[in-house]
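pls design
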């Protein structure tokens, strides 16, 4: 793809602009190194950190170098080029940015050369990505980033084919057997760690290390190398930067800064360290994303949530509760005003460790690593994970005694929501520096060197990890596991066997082929013709069933969508999660076409068989988007995906407030079925059936009435399995798992423990409807909830797809 290509031309003269950029780069490197050193001094001491190196792939330079370091690097006999592929990243699901560099070490090309790489991941051709980029005339090298979807937790073997100007270069191509010999067949260390990305020096580029208990895995990357597309952050749980590093990223790599913000809006977390001991730099952080600057305190929270200035201002405010009320209408209005949700930074509420001091040790079956924990929630999560086996459980005499006590994160950090994600701001004296995981000298311990020991994490980091959802919990699925909720979201009326029609047809067939056929042939003394009439009748019946199936389901592609979109009209940023269910009578020949800002994860049914997880899938990246060719959508096969996108959007709802009236103009790009708006004073308004690009006046409504209405809409559209299914999806999985004989060539397809109904998007919809135990519509002023007929930000990938039984929710701020 043309975007993201870096050119290095040593023949170009050093202009003043290039010199200035070089000086700026040196200054940036110095600042990064000094900030890293400060982080090591301020936080967890490296002497107390027992870290392990985690295998996350390697850098492959091809053709292979000679044994002698003095020999010149080998080049292709056909084109005189070399290729370097750096696929190191985190060992988690998501999109992995693979750095591909083509070099011309002997002589620069006199004309542009078009490079096409077909990159494959896995032992078999599980996912193949094809991308083009250009080596310009006179340039010594060119680099591009290839976004590779990773649908297996252990997938670090990469092979590829290379074409130069449309002709395959056999010397630059690497087949799977050579790739295995280079890697030694060593699988990556697949863990359930919280994966972090931090800024670091060049000698730690793309290295991955973790704590000995594998609670945390840390990937290091230079600020200038931060990805410029949000999908390349999708495999991470947290990005941790100091405030200085964040400002430096915004200045030196603005595309990376923008992509980072978009990733947070899709559900990621950005931890910002060194915001000041009194949180005095919070306004600077808030201004970056146009967020409220105030620190909001819970009624049960400690006073240290407020700065001294805010506490003084709060004490000077008059108490409105003591004023007399003149009418019932004013009482109701004041009651609604008390329920106004304040927006801003707040502390994370949590409970301390259980008082029984329980200690549990687990072994990961995939790699033999051990993990120890005292946290009750972590113990419960690992017990439900089939990849872990509990090896030890005891009462820890060093554990806490007494009952569980409520606490908050105010001594360490405050947080604020951004889209579906979170920004966390750490106080200066409690900054979370993950650089201590990277020893100042030498290399980390070899993986598993002392893997049965247990070290407590730094307090600020341990508190920060509480209630932080890992990848599978955020998405409610894993791409390589059977999902028990697949049957609850089928396209209605298609793909189901017409049981009644079949019963009638088979009854008629039996009567005609048996008694009727025999009686007629005997009457006319032609019984010898039964050898012809019986197969002829069977053939006609089979053709009738086949014709009925074709006519009933048709040839078009039908899709059902369940989406949730966050829309920030102040910045024009939108993030959309959508679950898509396809049924295609005849799959489109070109597959699916998706924009470059959309991630796609397959949802596997329990009954599909083990090989569904390993189906070959081909992608072709271009500037226009991704062409998903083979393996993505098959004819007459229920297929589901989870898609996530983040982008700039023109869609919005124009608000015109006048006293206690509100008029809106629908520019969401879809007709609105139900609209609930909270104006700047916290009053609620309702609108229904507002056509696209039309205006309407909203009527006032109480908060309780609005909550009941949204609750009704959400409950009515909660996915349910069709009544035609005789058993639940979990029963189908259990039945298939108990099969006595399994083909020897099948891989084990495990049942996933996460639920799509509990992922970030569905959890937010449930919160808006008050289905999670909290009041409905807990939104700040200048917010709205819109239920629309279609989703403006939802991408189907098929231009002529017919949408059925969909449900689209948009939560907006203006």
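designed seq:
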């Amino acid at each position: 793809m043309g975007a993201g290509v870096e050119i290095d031309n040593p023949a170009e003269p050093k202009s003043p602009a290039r010199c200035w950029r070089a000086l700026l780069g040196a200054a940036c490197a110095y600042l990064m190194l000094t900030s890293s050193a400060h982080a090591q001094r301020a936080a967890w001491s490296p002497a107390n950190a027992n870290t392990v190196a985690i295998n996350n792939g390697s850098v492959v330079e091809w053709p292979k170098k000679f044994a002698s370091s003095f020999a010149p690097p080998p080049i292709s006999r056909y084109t005189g080029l070399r290729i370097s592929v750096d696929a190191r990243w985190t060992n988690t699901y998501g999109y992995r940015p693979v750095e591909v560099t083509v070099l011309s070490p002997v002589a620069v090309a006199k004309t542009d050369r078009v490079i096409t790489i077909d990159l494959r991941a896995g032992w078999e051709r599980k996912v193949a990505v094809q991308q083009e980029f250009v080596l310009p005339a006179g340039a010594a090298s060119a680099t591009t980033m290839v976004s590779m979807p990773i649908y297996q937790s252990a997938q670090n073997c990469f092979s590829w084919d290379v074409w130069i100007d449309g002709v395959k270069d056999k010397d630059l191509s690497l087949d799977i057997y050579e790739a295995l010999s280079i890697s030694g067949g060593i699988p990556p260390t697949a863990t359930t760690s919280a994966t972090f990305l931090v800024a670091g020096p060049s000698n730690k580029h793309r290295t991955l290390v973790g704590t000995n208990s594998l609670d945390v895995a840390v990937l290091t990357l230079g600020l200038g190398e931060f990805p410029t597309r949000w999908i390349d952050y999708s495999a991470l749980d947290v990005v941790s930067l100091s405030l200085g590093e964040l400002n430096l990223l915004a200045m030196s790599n603005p595309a990376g800064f923008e992509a980072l913000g978009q990733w947070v809006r899709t559900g990621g977390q950005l931890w910002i360290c060194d915001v000041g001991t009194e949180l005095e730099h919070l306004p600077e952080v808030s201004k970056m994303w146009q967020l409220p600057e105030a620190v909001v305190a819970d009624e049960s929270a400690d006073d240290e949530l407020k700065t001294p200035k805010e506490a003084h201002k709060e004490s000077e405010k008059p108490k409105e509760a003591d004023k007399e009320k003149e009418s019932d209408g004013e009482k109701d209005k004041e009651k609604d005003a008390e329920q106004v949700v304040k927006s801003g930074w707040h502390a994370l509420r949590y409970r301390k460790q259980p008082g029984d001091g329980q200690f549990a040790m687990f072994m990961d079956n995939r790699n033999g690593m051990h993990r120890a924990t005292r946290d009750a929630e972590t113990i419960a999560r690992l017990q439900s994970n089939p990849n872990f086996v509990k090896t030890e459980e005891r009462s820890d005499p060093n554990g806490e005694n007494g009952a569980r006590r409520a606490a908050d994160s105010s001594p360490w950090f405050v947080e604020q929501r951004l889209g579906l994600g979170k920004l966390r701001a750490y106080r200066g004296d409690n900054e979370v520096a993950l650089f201590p995981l990277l020893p100042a000298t030498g290399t980390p311990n070899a993986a598993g060197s002392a893997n049965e020991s247990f070290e407590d994490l730094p307090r600020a980091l341990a508190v920060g990890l509480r209630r932080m959802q890992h990848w599978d919990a955020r998405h409610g699925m894993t791409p390589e596991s059977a999902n028990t909720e697949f049957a609850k979201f089928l396209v209605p009326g298609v793909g189901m066997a017409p049981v009644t029609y079949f019963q009638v047809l088979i009854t008629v067939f039996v009567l005609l082929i048996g008694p009727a056929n025999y009686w007629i042939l005997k009457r006319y003394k032609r019984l010898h013709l039964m050898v012809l009439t019986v197969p002829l009748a069977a053939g006609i019946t089979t053709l009738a069933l086949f014709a009925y199936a074709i006519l009933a389901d048709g040839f078009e592609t039908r899709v059902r969508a369940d989406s949730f979109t966050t829309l920030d009209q102040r910045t024009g940023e939108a993030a959309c999660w959508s679950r898509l269910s396809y049924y295609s009578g005849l799959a489109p020949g070109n597959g699916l076409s998706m924009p470059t800002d959309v991630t796609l994860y397959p949802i596997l049914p329990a009954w599909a068989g083990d090989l569904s997880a390993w189906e070959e899938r081909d992608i072709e990246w271009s500037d226009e988007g991704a062409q998903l060719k083979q393996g993505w959508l098959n004819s007459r096969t229920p297929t589901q995906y989870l898609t996530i996108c983040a982008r700039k959007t023109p869609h919005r709802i124009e608000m015109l407030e006048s006293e206690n009236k509100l008029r809106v103009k629908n520019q969401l790009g879809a007709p609105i079925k139900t609209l609930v708006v909270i104006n700047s004073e916290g009053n609620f308004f309702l609108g229904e059936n507002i056509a696209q690009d039309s205006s309407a006046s909203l009527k006032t409504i109480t908060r309780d009435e609005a909550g009941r209405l949204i609750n009704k809409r959400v409950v009515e559209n909660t996915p349910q399995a069709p009544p035609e299914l005789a058993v639940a999806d979990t029963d189908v999985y259990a039945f298939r798992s108990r099969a006595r004989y399994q083909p020897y060539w099948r891989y084990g397809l495990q049942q996933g423990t996460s639920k799509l109904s509990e992922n970030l998007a569905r959890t937010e919809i449930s919160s808006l409807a008050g289905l999670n135990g909290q009041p409905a519509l807990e939104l700040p002023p200048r917010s709205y909830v819109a239920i629309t007929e279609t989703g403006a930000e939802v991408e189907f990938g098929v231009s002529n797809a017919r949408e059925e039984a969909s449900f689209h929710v948009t939560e907006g701020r203006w």
